[in-house]
Amino acid sequence: MTDASDTKRRLRVLTLVDHFTSTGGAERLSARMAMRLDPERFEAIYCASRWDESRTNENQAELRREFERAGVRTLGLGRDSKLAVWQWRPLVALLRRERIEIIHSHKYGSNIWAVVLGRLFRVPVVVAHEHSWSYEGRPLRKFLDRRLIARGASAFLTVSEEDRRRMIEIERIDPDQVTLLPNGIDALPEADGAHVRAELGIPAGAPVLVSVAVLREEKQLHLLVRATAELVGDFPELRMLVAGEGPQREPLEALIEELGVGHAVRLLGSRGDVPDLLAASDVAVLCSRFEGTPLSVLEYMDAGLPVVATRVGGLPHVIEHGVHGLLTDPGDAHSLAEGIRALLDDPERARRMGAAGRERRREHYDFGRTLRTLERLYEDLLARSGRPA
Description:
Elements: E1 11-17, H1 25-36, E2 42-48, H2 58-69, E3 73-76, H3 89-97, E4 102-106, H4 108-120, E5 125-130, H5 139-152, E6 155-158, H6 161-169, E7 178-180, H7 194-199, E8 208-212, H8 221-231, E9 239-243, H9 249-259, E10 265-269, H10 274-279, E11 283-286, H11 295-302, E12 307-310, H12 315-318, E13 325-328, H13 333-344, H14 347-364, H15 367-385
Parallel strand pairs: 1-2, 1-4, 2-3, 4-5, 5-6, 6-7, 8-9, 8-11, 9-10, 11-12, 12-13
Helix pairs in contact: 4-5, 8-9, 8-13, 11-14
C-alpha cells in the first residue's frame, strides 16, 4: 500500500449504497462510477449496507467478480433492519482503520448514514446523491433532506433539472447546496435482435414494444398492460416485452390473465441481453409516476428507438415531445396507448425520432463526461475542505 505521507497517494473513495445488485438505475450507476474511477488518482471501496456476503446469490457473485477485476474492494454489512444500528460496525471499523477522503452515498437512506458517519469520523468530503424525487406528502423526509443531508454533505447531487427545482422550491434547500450531475451511459454494443424474436416466437413483421424496469409500484407497469390490451384489437400480432424482476410480478401476471393479453405481454424477468431486446423492438415505453433521468430511457435512445414516456421528473428535459419521442400524461393508460398507436401507425416518423434520440443521447448523456465531471468535483471539494490529500 502506498505510504500515507506520499503526496501522490490516491484518494480513497467509499461508495455507500443499500443494495448490492446490478438492477435498478441508481445501483447500476453507483457501481459503474466506482469501477471506472481513474485508478491513477482514486482507490475505490464499495459498501452495500443491506448485502449479506454470506448469502450471495449468483448475480451478486458475478457483480463481485466485476468489482474485483476493476480493483474495487467490496464490503457487505448484512443490515436487515433500520433499527439494527450495531450492523454498521464493519463500516465503523473501516472508517477508524483507514483514511477515507470521500464518501459518496446514493439514495435517501444511505445519504443519511453517510452524513452521520462521515461527520462523526471527520471524513473531509461527503457527497450525497439523489436519483429521483417523490417526496410529496412526506414531511419528515423533506425535513431530513434539508436540515441533515443538505447541510451535512459537501455536495448534494441530483440527476435532473426538475429534481433540482423541486429540492429547492419544495424542500427549500439552499440552491448553492444542490448540484446537477446528469446521468450518462456508454454507447450500447452491437446487437442482434433476430435471435430474440426467434427465441420468443415473434412473427416476422409483428410490432414489438419493450420496457426495461424493476417491477416496482412506481414503475406503473399495470398501465402498460392496460395500454397493450387497448391496442391488440388494431394490432393483433403486437408483442409487449417487459425485462426486469420485482415485487409487482404477481399483480401484473394477474392483470395480464384478467385482460386476456397473455399472448401479447411477456414478463421476461431479468435479462443479460438488453441490447438485443432493444434491437428486436420498434418502440420503447416508460410509464413511471416519478423518475429522475432513467438510464433505461438513455439506452432506448442509444438503440435508436422512439420513446413513449410519461411526462414526469427529468424526462421532458431528455425527450423533446415530437422530436425524440412522445410524452404522455402520467397515470393514464389511454394516453399511453394513443402515444404508442401514433408511432406504430407511422413507422417513418418513429424512425426519425429514434435517430434524433440516438444523436441527443450521444451528445448530452455520455457516461465518460459524467465520470470526468464527478472526478473533478471530488478533487475540488477536497481542496475546498482545507484537508490535505
